[in-house]
Amino acid sequence: MFETVVVGADASPTAAEAVKKAIELARLDGATLHIVSAYKPQRYSAAGSPEFTKALDSGDLAESLLAALASNARAVGVKAEVHPESGDPARAICDVAERVKADVVVVGNKGMLGVRRVLGSVPNTVAHEAPCSVLIVSTS
Description:
Layout: E1 4-8, H1 13-29, E2 32-39, E3 42-46, E4 49-56, H2 58-75, E5 79-86, H3 89-99, E6 104-108, H4 114-119, H5 122-129, E7 133-137
Parallel strand pairs: 1-2, 1-6, 2-5, 6-7
Antiparallel strand pairs: 3-4
Helix pairs in contact: 3-5
C-alpha cells in the first residue's frame, strides 16, 4: 500500500509516538521510512567581542536524534533514511515528502488543540500543504 513514509520528529514524547506508528506502518508495508527533524541555527557571540560570532550547530542535535530514531527503525527491519533540515518544521516535512515522492506523511497531533489549533501548528500545516496523504497520530 505505502512504499515511502515520511515522519516528522523532534525530541518530544508526541513525536516519539508518531515515529513509533510510522515505523509500524513502514514495517507492515515494507516501505522506506524517511525521518525528518527541523532545526533553527542559533548564533552567539562572546561578550564584548563582536568579531567572535559563531553559529551554534543545532543541526548536530538533530542528527543525533535522527540517528537514534533510524536505529530503532532498522532494529525491526525497516529501511530508514534521515533528513536534518534547517528551517520551519512543517515546511521541512512537506519539502522532504515532495522530494522523496512520499505516499504518506505521519505526524503527531501536538498543537491540534486549543489556541494553537486556530493559530496553526505543525500537523495542521502539514495536513493542508503535504503533497500526499497525511496520518495524524493521536498521542494523548
